[in-house]
Design brief:
Layout lengths: L7 E5 L3 H12 L3 E5 L3 H20 L5 H9 L2 E3 L10 E4 L5 H14 L5 E4 L6 H5 L8 E6 L8 E6 L5 H13 L3 E5 L7 H17 L5 H12 L5 H8 L1 H15 L8 H8 L17
Parallel strand pairs: 1-2, 1-4, 2-3, 4-5, 5-6, 7-8
Antiparallel strand pairs: 6-7
This protein binds 3-hydroxybutanoyl-coenzyme A.
3-hydroxybutanoyl-coenzyme A binds next to helix 2, helix 7 and helix 9.
Length: about 290
């Protein structure tokens, strides 16, 4: 069941998170528009969505109607103005503060006054993003987890001025996607990345200091702690650049040296070894 008042959802950014979010919006029955400045990214996103919904459908996890809606019903555009008549916009652009502030200022200008503007940021302050608009009461964090179609959690973050109506609409909306929303306060890294990224960072220190090989570290955490993926496999999957960006936000925002990024992480990012997306991180990936 879709949420009353939310008919059209626009997703800004067609990368891993954006295409996953657009997919679950479409399979849940929302009119969905996927926007990215890069037409190639949109084409890649369409292929990823098609593969994912075909798989989920073959396993009986989604209906014929949901699959068809995601395959044929998602509108795409390279122009942000395609979000103008959306009831809800979910921004999932690159994790870059200046870029997000610009997108929110533009969305604020383009969208009607009551449109809710949500951001999928994994670590940037919702209060700061909201301050780029003239509607901070309608701005909120909705942090989805990767891979979006499989992961049940959405972390919901109110900015300093987010009002209750926006919060309750987003809680209902994420539930309508079949997800479980959990509220977190607007502090660096919220709950998820405040815990996850320091754990990954510590795993990288273990490799740098020779405590264990990547395989050993991952096996310990998989078999010893029942994590579905070891922390270094997960780091490759999330992107080492993303992990580094979050560590830097935690370090700057909380001012505690315990959040310093591991030098090996910084070196690997500088070398372009970003994980799965670049073909190499702690492990090597062949297509
Ligand atoms: N859509 C549809 N199906 C998918 C899919 C997708 N996007 N991704 C994987 N699958 C399918 C696989 O094809 C596979 O299908 P099969 O059984 O028919 O072969 C099935 O799901 C299971 O996948 P795998 O066998 O590859 O692996 P797992 O059983 O380990 O499950 C996983 C995959 C759910 C990703 C699991 O490994 C997991 O939970 N990993 C941890 C993920 C995690 O921690 N995510 C959070 C990252 S942090 C984040 O997002 C926040 C950010 O801010 C950093």
């Amino acid at each position: 069941m879709t949420v009353p008042g939310i008919e059209h959802v626009a997703v800004v950014g067609a990368g891993t998170m954006g295409n996953g979010i657009a997919q679950v919006c479409a399979t849940s029955g929302y009119r969905t528009t996927l926007i990215d400045v890069n037409a190639e990214a949109i084409e890649r996103a369409k292929k990823t969505i098609a593969q994912s919904v075909t798989k989920l459908h073959s396993k009986g996890k989604i209906s014929d109607e949901a699959r068809d809606h995601a395959l044929k019903g998602i509108q795409t555009s390279t122009d942000l103005s395609a979000a103008a008549d959306a009831d809800l916009v979910i921004e999932a652009a690159t994790e870059n503060k200046a870029l997000k502030l610009q997108i929110f200022a533009d969305l604020d200008r383009l969208c009607h006054a009551n449109t809710i503007l949500a951001t999928n940021t994994s670590s940037i302050s919702i209060t700061e993003i909201a301050a780029a608009t003239k509607r901070p009461q309608h701005v909120i964090g909705a942090h989805f987890m990767n891979p979006v179609p499989l992961m049940a959690l959405v972390e919901i973050i109110r900015g300093y001025n987010t009002n209750h109506a926006t919060l309750s609409t987003i809680l209902e909306f994420t539930q309508s996607l079949g997800k479980t929303p959990v509220e977190a306060a607007d502090y660096p890294g919220f709950i998820s990345n405040r815990i996850l990224c320091p754990m990954i960072n510590e795993a990288i220190y273990c490799v740098m200091e020779g405590v264990g090989t990547p395989e050993a570290v991952d096996t310990v955490m998989r078999l010893g702690m029942n994590h579905p993926m070891g922390p270094l496999t997960l780091a490759d999957f999330v992107g080492l650049d993303v992990v580094l960006a979050v560590m830097d936000v935690l370090y700057e925002g909380l001012g505690d040296p315990k959040y310093r990024a591991c030098p090996l992480l910084r070196k690997m990012v500088a070398a372009g070894h970003l994980g799965k997306k670049s073909g190499r991180g702690f492990y090597v990936y062949n297509e």
